[in-house]
Structure formats: C-alpha cells, structure tokens
Recover the amino acids of this structure.
C-alpha cells in the first residue's frame, strides 16, 4: 500500500519548545520520522514522505509547503481507486504490527483513533474522501464518512493514538518506544520520574 | 474469566476536583463503573467489583479498604492457577471488543498498555505474579514478569490505555464514549471545543 508520511521540516514540534531548543526539536523530529519509516519498512507499505521542505531520510520525498490538509488532499485527488494511507511522522510508538493492523482492516475509510480527537493514521480507499486535520479531526472524518455513505472502520491502537506533540508526551516515548527517538531522549538526559502519582520525562 | 474491577467509592476521582464537585465526581465515577460493567457483560467475563466502600452497581461487590495494590494482591493470593483479570473502573472508553482482545490474548501475564505508564487492565495466569500500581507500573510489571520468567504479552488498545483521571481526559469520553459517562458529561453541560489547535471538554 502507498503510504504518505507528512513531515514538517521547517518548524517541527513547536509545542516542545519549553523543553527542547530549535536544533534539538529538529533532531528529535527526524529521529521520530526515522522510527516511523523503520516500522513501515517491515510492512507491505511503500512510503513517501510529504515534507514542507527537503529532508534527508532515506525514503522518497515530495515537497509541498501548503498546510497539511491541502497537501494531503492534493495527493488524494491525484488518485482514483488506489488505496492511500496517511501516517503521521510523530508516531514514535508505532510498530510494524500496529501499522499492519491498520492497513489490513477492510473499509473505504479506516481511521486509527487518536488522542485529543486527532487522526494520526488512516487508510482511504474511496475516491471522494478528503481529510480535514483541523480541530477534532476524528469527529469531522467520522461525519464526512457517514455523509458520503462509505464503509467506515476504526482501529483501536494506543501506539497509533499517541502522537508526540507536548512535553507530557515524551514519557510515552521513554516507556514504550524502542527506536531512535527513545534513544535520542535518553542521550539528551531524559529519564522517567514519578512525582505525586504522575509519571513524566525529566531531564537530568 | 473472573474479572476484578477496583473502584474507589470513598473519594473517587480527586484529580477532577477543579472541574467537578464531590457529588459530581461520585456520580461521574459511578457512571464510568456502569459503562465498564456493561462492556464486561457482553464478554465472557464474570466481574466482581473490588470497592473501598459499599456501592450499588448491579454486580457482586467485595469491600476492601486497603490501598489498591494490597487489595488486588490479596485476591491474587487466594487463587492458584485460575486466571484473574483486573480492569479499572475508570476505563470509560472500554468496549466488549477491546476487553475480549485482552482476555483472549495468551500469556501468563498480559498487560494492556496504559497512558502515563499505568496498567489499566491485565490478565494474570501465573500463581506468583503480584501487582504494584505505584508510579510507572507498566515498567515494574514488565520487569517482574521478566524476572519471574513468565510468558508475557502486551495488548495495544487506545480504549484500554485511556483511564479518566484528569480534566484533560474528559474530552476523550465525549469523543469516543457511548455510554452513561459520556451522557453524564453532556447532561452536565460539557462540549468539545477547539482552542489554539488543542481539543478539550468545556462546560457551558
């Protein structure tokens, strides 16, 4: 299956700004992208990185500086009945098994549930479906799918539900990641600590 | 399978205090418990609520006022080779399908991945395994399972990973719940709103 991996190469992971400076955010974002591509490489997927600027990542790259939804929808419009998956580049917990479950789930539109109403990964097998990543996108995508009367399915995966946007998300990478992103965090001095019953990543 | 559902009937959901007063927290916690029991009723599970105080919930209740880990371990110690599952009462997104996947996964110890390092649901089929819910419990449970040399498996479910502890979690119930807890939130005036690219539950 063809898989688009949207990546912001210009200002990656701005919400991590309190924790990481601009160079660190870029390095960490590229480590997460590498993890997603490594997981995809163990599936039947053929990935293309859809990047806002050139990036060296070992996979084919298409540069499109438009906002995310417009850039993805341009690719959806180019194809007719071929399926296309979209998997975000910050799914640092993604495994080949979780991704294969998504790709193997039948349906015209298959959405992976995402935290905070996001749609971190989906498969489109219907020519009319378009994405809208603004706001609680999973709700909008459910509604669009219902209105278009397409066969719709949801995939229930914590690994695909967990995108890494905020400082609070870093602990998930330390606890459940096993690739370059978790290695990057450990080398940057991050450890799992518990304070007041809550668990978080803290830098030494 | 026998399933313990730990429930704090004395001071439920104290972290929701900024949002909900004590009576509301109790009512919302009981709505979540009802949703978990309703989901379990559609599986092969035989649930027992393990409560810190008496609670009227339509399922058998065992009262044990000790801290969570001690109360659960007392039940684990009572049995020999019979499997026992432990499913938290605040998994308002749990579905029969997600729970059945957990129960049907083979292994001496089967853990559902939980946000923030928690262990929201597990199955124990090994007589020596004991729980420790303090801190990043999933890491401790992985270590104990490795040291005991038991057959260990993890289940990847967003619905089982999402416990409802903090105000930020309420939006997940509105977006993905379909039972009494989401109904309770709507009747209390909660709606999904988007501000600055983030989605949250806000009270009208």
């Amino acid at each position: 299956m063809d898989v688009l991996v949207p990546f912001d190469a210009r200002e990656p992971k701005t919400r991590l700004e309190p924790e990481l400076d601009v160079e660190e955010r870029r390095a960490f974002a590229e480590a997460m992208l590498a993890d997603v591509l490594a997981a995809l490489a163990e599936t039947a997927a053929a990935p293309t990185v859809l990047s806002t600027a050139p990036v060296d990542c070992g996979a084919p790259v298409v540069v499109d500086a438009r906002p995310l939804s417009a850039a993805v929808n341009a690719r959806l419009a180019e194809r007719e009945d071929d399926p296309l998956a979209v998997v975000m580049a910050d799914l640092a917990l993604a495994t080949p098994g979780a991704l294969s479950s998504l790709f193997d789930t039948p349906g015209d539109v298959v959405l992976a549930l995402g935290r905070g109403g996001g749609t971190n990964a989906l498969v489109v097998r219907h020519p009319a479906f378009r994405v809208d990543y603004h706001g609680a996108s999973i709700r909008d995508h459910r509604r669009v799918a219902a209105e278009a009367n397409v066969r719709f399915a949801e995939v229930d995966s914590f690994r695909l539900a967990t995108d890494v946007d905020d400082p609070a998300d870093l602990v998930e990478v330390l606890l459940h990641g096993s690739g370059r992103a978790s290695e990057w965090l450990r080398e940057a001095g991050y450890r799992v600590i518990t304070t007041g019953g809550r668990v978080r990543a803290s830098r030494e």
